[in-house]
Design goal:
7-stranded beta/alpha barrel; 2 domains; five-stranded parallel sheet; 18 helices
Amino acid sequence: MKYICLYFQVHQPFRFRNYPFFDIGNDHYYYDDYLNESILRRVAQKCYLPAGKLMLKLIHKWGNKFRISFSISGSALDQFELYAPEVIDIFKELAATGNVEFLAETYPHSLVSQQNMALFRAQVQEHTLRIEDLFGQKPQVFRNTELIYSDSIGAEVYKMGFKGMLTEGAKHVLGWKSPNFLYYNAIQPKLKVLMRNYKLSVDIAFRFSDKNWDKYPLTADKYIDWLNELNPQEELINLFLDYETLGEHQWAETGIFDFMEHLPEILFKKTGFIFETPSNLIKKLQPVAVANVPYPISWADEERDLTAWLGNDMQQEAYNKLYKLADKMEKVTDLELNQDWNYLQNSDHFYYMSTKWFSDGTVHSYVNPYQNPYEAFINYMNILSDFNLRLNLLLPNEKQIPEFKYLLNIIQKKDREILRLKEKLQKKKQKTAD
């Protein structure tokens, strides 16, 4: 038996409003509600709802031969609850079929795995509890933000109780090896690693509607023929896609929904493949080799590294200043401040600051609310400055405590003096009246 692992990422960031310097300290609301709602509603109508109905239709038609998996970021779930609760309902319907697996990730879709392992664990736990509460599943497999993975991250993920992890089948990692097998972590061999087949995933995600592509148009029959041309010893094809591929990145008019609807039928007729979930694949397959990934990889851009988010000085400065606040935030119980803290960590904010305008430029410009990366950086830093002010007022750092005590003592002395003078004045008024 051969398997296809069809996995979809579902994510929407909370986009920030234009936040000028003069709002710092005066206005603590950071979000562009109109933009967030309009984008979420549009993508729900074009992608989440019709795609969800299609997945239900395919599951009901093909039963256990068609299984799929999702990871849904916490910020996406929060937006669904705000703007389109019917999307959560359809995911609950999918969960109830028993043919859909929900994976864990960091709740705010953050890059924290590169900075703070304690916070990383907390964010994964928060997301896991939310998924279990909504869909009745405790995730067994982990998918880090943007498929970011390294040997050390994988070992940490295993300590958190996960049996497997998804990542990119990067050429500079695999070398001559194929992504079409199950691998294991170099530090903790018990953690299984599923690696994306980049070409077959991107053929659907990006090339599907490209009329300049020499393979255009892509049909289900043509795609299945490519699968049949693979080495017969290869036992697993990992197709990892943004869910928004269906209807948003590739509009319905391109035929993407028809392609997805007919793909299983032709696959079952012409090949020995069936669709399976990550946790089941880990149980059914034996890993063939170690995946040596000493340095972090991702599924972004040609380099498959982290430079899309942390590749320039602006991104590094924003990232480092953000996580300098992590120790203080551990002591904060204020719900609003914690929510803002989560949304400030969305990887998208750092992506908007990218200056990679070469072969990957069109990808970086998609759904970007800023005119250029410098505008994104300035806006983010203004918001972060205001957030830092709020945090210091709520929880001053140790160096500030003596100064705060000194100022508070002065204020209290003045208050006592004012009260004394008021009483003295009152007595004088009383004597005059007598």
